[in-house]
């Protein structure tokens, strides 16, 4: 990080913190705060799986909005992410599956758009290359 000059020209940065673990709070310096909890109990709070899913969906929809504007397509895209916490090979892992729908588009048209969004969405880029991540174009979210 220290030697990466891209930090000096960042379009946006944020600082986020968690100093209490799963049974506590996470917050961003700009003011948002969420109560955190483990997904393996019924305690109130948001868990890492939910935060990852919301981040991915928000990035996919936001990026798709830009792509649709570039293609002069008037539609409001939708995204759904399913996140599973599973026992992996010697460690626990996340499984992440995303769906993207673009109302008014055929499935083949949506597939083309989704392949574009998959390569441009920053969160998708972070997850791509992992066997635990998949994304698909759909006509309706399930």
TrEMBL record:
The organism's place on the tree of life at top rank: Bacteria
InterPro entries (alphabetical): KH_dom-like_a/b, OHR, OsmC/Ohr_fam, OsmC/Ohrsf
Family assignment from sequence similarity: Belongs to the OsmC/Ohr family.
Protein name: Dihydroneopterin aldolase
Source organism of the structure: Weissella thailandensis
